[in-house]
Hints:
- The protein is an all-alpha fold.
- It has eight helices and no strands.
- The longest helix is centred in the N-terminal third of the chain and has 35 residues, at 12-46.
- The protein is flat and about 70 Å long.
Amino acid sequence: MGLDFSVVPDYMDTILLGILWTLAITLVAAVISVFGGVFFALTELYAHWFFKYPIKAFAFIFMGTPLLLQLFFLYFGLGLIGIPLSPFVAGIIGLGLFYSVYNSELIQTAMITVDNGQTEGARSLGLSKIQTIHNVILPQAVRKVIPPMGNNLIMLMKDSALVSAIGVTELIHASELAIGETFRPFEFYIAAGVCYYIINLFMEAGLRKVERKVQVTK
């Protein structure tokens, strides 16, 4: 039995819905991962040990366990202890926190590499420690981490497929719904792969524009 892509157009509504959910999950989780990464980085670098070490433990757990397991814990585990989350909320929290940890590592590395002379110069001008971090160190670190953080955002988009395991009707789950009715798995998986590739191209183009804009404003 050969491939028959004529069945795909009949399920375009389902596929488009899956694409919209994939984009929504990616967007919200990306925002969480960026702001979460900044928060974790600042906490680990500058906060009191009482706050620093819980964040380090949290990062160790999230970096040392699979994302899928974390999604199961957030959706099924929290529900068992009386904290029910919808599949969408569990998905974006799981993806957002997972990539927050990796973004935090990038940001910390970039902040550490900022020349100490700039920090000393800012303090000599009367800037407080917080002002120095906000106005001198963090902006330079953000410029350095945009390319690798962009790669993380693309990986986040691809990993959004994992939320299908907890029932979110994103692109993979939408394709599986169509497969369940047509029994044509390869046609819909190939269609899903093409959709992911197109989204990936748009994201890469957008990130290149951001990188060029940042380079111009240095």
